[in-house]
Amino acid sequence: MKSKIFFKCILLVLCISFTSCLVEDGEDGINGIDGVDGKDGINGTNVQDGQDGAEGPQGESGEDGADCVGFDELTQYGYINLEIEGIRSDNQAFQDSTSFKFTPIELDGYSKVTTAYTFEMRRYLSAPDDVYQNSYIYLSLVLLNFQEEGMEIGFETFGSSQNPVVGEDHK
């Protein structure tokens, strides 16, 4: 019984407090002082362009760059072709063929641990060291017991990085 009376009192207090709030907008305040008007622009005239002047003398040749790497240097050690085919998650078959022709500018990795040699190789899809063109394929070979009887060659890692495959339907 006490809880019903308490609940009714709380409900009455809430109703009174909500109805005492007026639901109308306040009136606008006093307008402020007008700002200074800007200056008008100067009207232009519609004049046609004149004729071009005479061609100037040829400039001096620039200096040759030092330690630059060109197309021939980046493609001289062969390439890796990557051919992919499969079925997408929406049951559509796809095929893709990509040729990675460009070597890195810096030397690929090489290390020797006791009787094992590891060679790491990369080939880029386009000119390397460009922040927007960093698609490459990599391969790591291990030679165990190099130049000894029973030498073994094995793949340590193989993969590609940032190589999107987009089908004919752009998916």
Instruction: Return residue spans where pLDDT drops below 50 for at least 5 consecutive residues.
Output: none
Order of helices and strands: HHEEEEEE
From the spread of the alpha carbons, the general shape counts as flat
Relative strand content: 25-35%
Using brief descriptors, characterize the structure shown.
171 residues, alpha+beta, four-stranded antiparallel β-sheet, two-stranded antiparallel ribbon, 2 helices, 6 strands, 13% helix
Structure commentary:
- The protein is of the alpha+beta class and 171 residues long.
- It is 13% helix and 28% strand.
- The protein has helices at 2-19, 71-75, and strands spanning 80-87, 93-100, 110-113, 116-124, 136-144, 152-161.
- A four-stranded antiparallel sheet has the order 3-4-5-6, with no helix packed on it. A two-stranded antiparallel sheet has the order 1-2.
- A hairpin with a 7-residue loop joins strand 5 and strand 6 (152-161).
- The longest helix has 18 residues, at 2-19.
- The relative contact order is 0.10.
Blueprint of the fold:
Blueprint: H1 2-19, H2 71-75, E1 80-87, E2 93-100, E3 110-113, E4 116-124, E5 136-144, E6 152-161
Antiparallel strand pairs: 1-2, 3-4, 4-5, 5-6
